[in-house]
Amino acid sequence: MSALNRYNDENALIGVKETPVGKSTKKAFDPQAFLAKVGAGKAILKFERSQHVFTQGDVADAVFYIQKGRVKLTVVSEQGKEAVVGILEPGQFFGEGCLNGHPLRIATATAVEECMITSISKEAMIHTVQSEPKFSELFMAYLLTRNSRIEEDLIDQLFNSSEKRLARLLLLLAHFGTEGTTQPILIDISQETLAEMIGTTRSRVSFFMNKFRKLGLISYNGKIEVHNSLLDAVLHEKPEIERDDDL
User: Fold this and answer.
1) Which of 53, 75, 98, 186 is the most buried (most CB within 10 A)?
2) Rounded to two decimals, what is the model's pTM?
């Protein structure tokens, strides 16, 4: 028996298979599996409603990824005025400022409901972004989407009335698409928080909310429900949504 035949027979008996030329034995990297599991530089954290993930001024040494629940970001000025700058949902990162050289947190992150969050150390995050293209693509897509949202928010703040800003915010919170159906806002959000997010007073938000309800643009049924008529009013600048504030 030749040496080649003997080698093949022995491999057949013990179940050994040669690795095909050009194929890697490394398991394909799964970004979602990476984010869902504890590992080097990673931890899975649980937060109750109203519990802080971090506070403004804390050392910035980790990036966070929301697996479950929602997180509110707030900032406080030197004069003590607080503003809500965002409501984050599952599938979103936050705290990534540490990757850009920010030594301290510039905002406070608070759970608005029970949350499960992945904490990734700065070092582990940098290593994964550099070594895993699929994860890098996921993170880059998030950053680009967030940047577009920030630009839209700035334009909204500069050129639209507080009434129109509120209408846009309600549509965003309801994840209103093009289906033209009623969409509920799935989180409990106060009129005070809505006011902070659009830069106006609670009394103005209350006035606009009552106006929207009377016009049939929204309704209350335990949760705020946004109707397609509100989207139509914003997109086509109907007269029911004023362009200028009448204070």
Assistant:
1) 53
2) 0.81
